[in-house]
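Exam prep: given the inputs below (a chain plus D-MYO-inositol-1-phosphate), describe the expected output before reading on.
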Amino acid sequence: MTATEVDAADLLALAEQVAREAGRLVVADRPRDLQVAATKTTATDIVTEMDRRSEQLVVDRISAARPDDGFLGEEGAARAGTSGVTWVVDPIDGTVNYLYGIPAYAVSIAASVDGQVVAGAVVNPVHGETWTALRGEGAWLDGQRLRISAPPPLHLALVATGFGYDARRRARQADVLGQVLPRVRDVRRFGAASLDLCAVACGRVDAYYEQGLKPWDLAAGGLVATEAGATVTGLRGRVAGEDLVVAAGPPLVTELVGLLEELDADSDPLA
Ligand code: IPD
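Solution:
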């Protein structure tokens, strides 16, 4: 099956509807004494019962509508599917914010067809904001079309970034950040990669970069940023991925990529 044989607009409508419902669930059912249910790669890489419930809701709702589709979810949803459509799901992006009650977390759902993300929805349920994007058609915040304006030069740019959970990666990221900070207006660390990418799309920051993102961190927000006119890329001609994600409008993206290449920001301390 190819992207043209699937109605991406239908996939987007489903992604948006389910992301909103999951968002309502994580806000309404967040226990006052929310606990860490388990840890994953490190003691600080956490999962709560609400991450699991949100992912289950997403899988249930989408499977009911489209039983042949596959899933790739942060909390373990993994099904190959037979339709050519795979849903890439972060049931709560910004889990540490969620644990602490910081209102910067999101439900992120993307639909990919034969490996290409064609539709994505990112919902911040606390602020009631929904970003959507359809490949080749555009990106929207609460239905309003997004178009990034010409970004400033690097030394005047507000740059968001994030850090992984592994201490070796964090030490390397701190070294890189130490070199970036004196060359830009300022940096922000909001704590949810999907929202960082959406922030580029709606001009709340000029740029974003991070090493170590997983597909569910990148899929929906990456499409939102791209469709808003940003370039979302890796370093050294590679596509954006776990090595590095850089998102900004041209020509700022070229300046930032150049700096990050100089700093070897894509070298993997875990390799
Ligand atoms: C994390 C957040 C964070 C980013 C990490 C991600 P999670 O996702 O997006 O901002 O810096 O790289 O792993 O664990 O909260 O879903």
